Amino acid sequence: MLRENVMRWTLIACGLLIAASGTPPRAGAEEEAKPWGPAPVAVERQGEHYRVLCHFDTSRIADEVLAAVEPVWDATVAVLGRSVEEKGRKEVHIYRGAADFAAADKQITGGHFARNLAFMAAVDGTAHIALQPELDDTVFARVGLSAVTLRAAVHEACHGALYQAMPNHTDQPSWLSEGLATWIADAVLVTQKLTPRAELDPMSSTRIVRVQRLLESNALPTPREIIFTKLDDVSFARRYAVWAVFFRFLVETQDSDFRRTMIDTAWRTGGGSTFGARLAKSLEKAWGKETLDALNGEFKAYVRALRPAWDETFRTLGIRGDTWTQMAWSAQNTTAWRVEPVGRKKFAISGSVELLYGTNPQMNVLLARRNEGFVTVAFRADAGVTILDYRTEGEVWRNVGWMDVPEVRVGNEVKFRIRVDGDQITLEIADHDPLVWTLEDVDVTGRWGVGAQYSSAGIWRGVKLH
Ligand SMILES: [Zn+2]
Known about the structure:
It contains 13 helices and 19 strands. A hairpin with a 3-residue loop joins strand 1 (43-46) and strand 2 (50-54). It is 36% helix and 25% strand. By secondary structure, it is of the alpha+beta class. Residues 1-13 and 15-34 have low confidence and may be disordered. The structure holds zinc ion (ZN). Residues 14, 16, 155, 159, 178, 181 line the site of zinc ion (ZN). The site of zinc ion has 6 residues, from helix 6 and helix 7.
């Protein structure tokens, strides 16, 4: 039993916790807190459906999380299509960082989700999320929640709603539990204009890119394999993407009877460790074997037709209209590439960048991505703008140009235009003399993107390819 639980834990990356035997201590119960427990709740906000408990002193984050998660309950009930009893407010706990989250995780699960940074506890349906990345308070005070934390909070709040609404939620196979939670979370975020639609949002778009890569390499699981949970050949990181895109496919392409059958069958099938297998057989019977197999071609065509805009190699980039906020972890540069190559030798990229406080404030415009490398235009606080030509062979960074721009400093917005004409590139910033340099042996027609150096954060505004 324990072994089975451990196996299932390892399969559920977002952290939907399968109930373990015994009752672990509850997070937030300060009188029970051990010396190694998380910080006590410092700020609490309550809405009609959710209670947000921040284990650090921040009104802004608590308000933002509550506003984002409040619509989740109604959205969940609408997707399930039946009236369900709401049994009190669902709790969402936010921790200041990975260490505090890990302390809570240790209390609640024995430490199964230390690396996931978000989970819902099956013992009581409470959601637990670490504020990410671990940047200075001034960054969060300036820009609020990061894209990755916002999505994690709404996603786990969906699990909390499903936990109340569907008695067997924690026994559901991941294609259904994760599919439902991801679908509802995406809809809630888009409706509130907290993210653009899936193809234009870096995190959702990257899921699509992963699934399209599976299709390109003939490794995309069939709907039958997904429903019968035969994803052994799919890497752990890509399973989430498969569940999310497959569920979206079902909702967007199949008629309401088909979806109703899925929800009703899941509702009727009870629970327990054999739930997934019984549900698969029931659905195969309800939909018909031929219908299920016919979905294969439809699913491939659906995946092929999607047009993801972003391939986020490392998180996290949040997009609200023309304003893009990008934040990096302390040990990793973040990069978000546009999926579509520039496709021509003459073009320009323009916009503005504001560096936020950090130990290493540097934001990067990336271009000319190809197998052999890419070019970085690096805006570094109090150090101007540096042009770097990166070659994958030998991992060589070559400094090919530098522009002294005192305006590039924390808290200051700097407008820029990067003009590319064949191998000649011109950097224009305000009244400064343009910096012109020539690239050697670089195909400039490849992909472009934006990045934040490790421990950095910044705001891009109006960045466009011309
Ligand atoms: Zn999840």
